Backbone:
């Protein structure tokens, strides 16, 4: 299942694993700037393998320290940002539909006390143990491992429901959230289609039948950026993608990313990254080369590690954690 993301072309974070609809991988966070929010229907478990890392959600920002676990609710806007050097996080995404037949009310839960630290030994160790069990089963792929994965996933869900504080979301609120996300998706699609050629807030508001001031507030609330900042961010991301993955010259990059002059591109890079576009290209190509086995790179923001690298990184981490008596 593809995630509903701020840019599906650039952020396709959910892959199927043997038809189980469960995603498990290591993501390397390489962005220093606040990245664009994304969301998906799955419940997401995040464990910091090499941290700390900064997590932004609708509720605010939180620093996740080494070993911390955090639960991102289904359809919750969120994004990750590195602190210092590049950070590795374990991502486990579980569709709530797996529990609908025998525990349907889980879809109405919104987990609130979801920042799990190792100091809370009873809750943390059991949750981390279930996550480790899932990864081990997925790595070994022994006969019938799919049954084992689903069994451990159910145990993990039961542990969360029993031990993590949560609120019950009303049907009315769920419908409102759904409408807002659909509107956000339409707005994002329209801006992404036209950001390189020019689009105004007034045009966008008219297409949605909204007052431009309301739309401005809506975009700021759900994307964490003003309309102008969002358009600028899209142009920057297109430019960074071309710099890292192509040999296009600076004029072509300006045209394709929507910058009218190379000076404006340089100004944007200096403000966002503290370097010139050329320096950015050299630095991030070297970083990408170090992770050349990664499945996907997302501009200047994430590297989604391949299945083999994900298991290697996680099991190295697991060995250290066990030596330190964390697990």
Residues:
């Amino acid at each position: 299942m593809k995630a509903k993301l701020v840019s599906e072309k650039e952020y396709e974070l959910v892959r199927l694993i043997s038809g189980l609809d469960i995603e498990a991988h290591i993501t390397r966070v390489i962005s220093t700037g606040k990245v664009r929010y994304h969301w998906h229907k799955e419940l997401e478990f995040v464990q910091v393998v090499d941290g700390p890392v900064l997590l932004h959600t609708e509720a605010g920002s939180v620093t996740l320290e080494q070993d911390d676990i955090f639960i991102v609710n289904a359809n919750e806007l969120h994004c990750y940002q590195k602190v210092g050097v590049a950070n590795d996080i374990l991502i486990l995404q579980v569709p709530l539909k797996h529990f609908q037949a025998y525990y349907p009310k889980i879809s109405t839960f919104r987990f609130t006390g979801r920042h799990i630290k190792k100091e809370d030994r009873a809750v943390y160790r059991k949750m981390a143990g279930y996550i480790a069990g899932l990864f081990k089963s997925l790595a070994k792929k022994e006969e019938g491992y799919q049954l084992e994965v689903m069994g451990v996933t159910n145990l993990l869900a039961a542990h969360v429901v029993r031990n993590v504080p949560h609120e019950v979301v009303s049907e009315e609120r769920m419908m409102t959230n759904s409408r807002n996300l659909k509107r956000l998706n339409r707005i994002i699609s329209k801006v992404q289609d036209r950001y390189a050629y020019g689009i105004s807030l007034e045009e966008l508001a008219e297409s949605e039948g909204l007052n431009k001031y309301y739309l401005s507030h809506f975009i700021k609330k759900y994307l964490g950026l003003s309309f102008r900042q969002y358009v600028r961010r899209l142009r920057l991301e297109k430019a960074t993608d071309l710099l890292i993955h192509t040999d296009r010259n600076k004029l072509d990059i300006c045209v394709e990313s929507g910058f009218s002059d190379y000076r404006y591109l340089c100004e944007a890079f200096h403000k966002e990254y503290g370097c010139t576009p050329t320096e950015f290209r050299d630095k991030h190509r070297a970083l990408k080369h170090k992770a050349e086995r990664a499945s996907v790179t997302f501009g200047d923001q994430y590297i989604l590690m391949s299945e083999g690298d994900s298991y290697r990184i996680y099991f190295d981490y697991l060995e250290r954690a066990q030596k330190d008596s964390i697990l």
Summary: The radius of gyration is 21 Å. Residues 171-194 form the longest helix (24 residues).
